[in-house]
Specification:
Radius of gyration: 18 Å
CATH superfamily: P-loop containing nucleotide triphosphate hydrolases
Number of domains: 1
Helix content: 25-40%
Structural class: alpha/beta
Oligomer: single chain
Strand order of the largest sheet: 5-6-7-3-8-9
Number of helices: 9
Order of helices and strands: EEEHEEHHHHEHEHEEHHEE
Largest sheet: 6 strands, mixed
């Protein structure tokens, strides 16, 4: 049996010794899709950064592909909540995706045929092969998010981490992203997707981890996206169940 893509045991994560999320216990196998669900400010982004070795593991143990998080970065991909590229910077969609190959290339080596092929294939997978030469900043918000996804998958990661990938994304781009994520997991890539959208978690995830300062529940969508665990996680937010739909209402 292949090693777990991600294993967290009694983990607390944060910065400078101050925990942001505590008590996380979960295991993600190759090809599984995990949704981190909780309100804004719950610590989902910090938990993702800890898997990348960018936030501190204060307590417990974490292994990524049988390695310490910081030693597994060559095998992981990351799609941030907001891109760190200046939209006014004169770089094409193709050049952005090529950045995903830099770990293999090094900054000083020219792209090889295999790298150019991987970039073309990644853009094609997200439905933007015809936009490859356009300046990144001229693309729509949803298209830019798809380019960032293409950048991550061009590196051919075994574990892919996505921080709120559907925020501000149009329906066409959301459908394209979901399709790619399903294809990746079918091919064996493990996925961690942070979201506050219960419908996304219900429809896309194999496992759901409810977090808000701590882990409140982990399990299948049917086990976690129910009134009890969601009330614990969202606290003062009111939850109504109407015709099987889950609705969170700010007080």
């Amino acid at each position: 049996m292949a090693a777990a893509a991600l294993r967290l045991a009694g983990v607390s994560v944060g910065y400078q010794g101050r925990p942001v999320v505590t008590g996380v216990d979960l295991e993600l196998r190759p090809g599984q899709r995990l949704a981190l669900v909780g309100p804004n400010g719950a610590g989902k982004s910090t938990l993702i950064k800890s898997v990348l070795g960018l936030a501190e593991i204060i307590d417990g143990s974490a292994t990524v592909l049988d390695r310490a998080p910081a030693h597994a970065r060559a095998f992981t991909g990351y799609v941030p909540q907001t891109g760190n590229l200046d939209p006014d910077f004169p770089v094409s969609a193709r050049q952005v995706v090529m950045m995903g190959r830099y770990r293999r290339l090094g900054w000083w080596r020219p792209a090889r045929a295999a790298d150019r092929r991987a970039v073309t294939e990644a853009l094609d997978r997200v439905g933007l092969a015809d936009r490859a030469g356009l300046r990144f900043g001229l693309l729509s918000g949803g298209q830019r998010q798809r380019v960032l996804l293409a950048r991550a998958i061009a590196a051919q990661p075994r574990l892919l981490l996505l921080d709120e990938p559907f925020n501000g994304v149009d329906a066409v781009s959301q459908e394209a992203i979901v399709r790619v994520l399903r294809d990746l997991s079918a091919a064996g890539t493990a996925l961690v997707i942070s979201t506050h959208d219960l419908a996304v978690a219900r429809d896309l995830a194999d496992l759901v981890c409810l977090v808000n300062g701590r882990q409140w529940a982990v399990g299948t969508p049917g086990e976690t996206l129910t009134a009890g665990p969601l009330r614990q996680t969202y606290g003062s937010a009111a939850l109504d169940l109407e015709n099987g739909r889950m609705v969170l209402v700010d007080p």
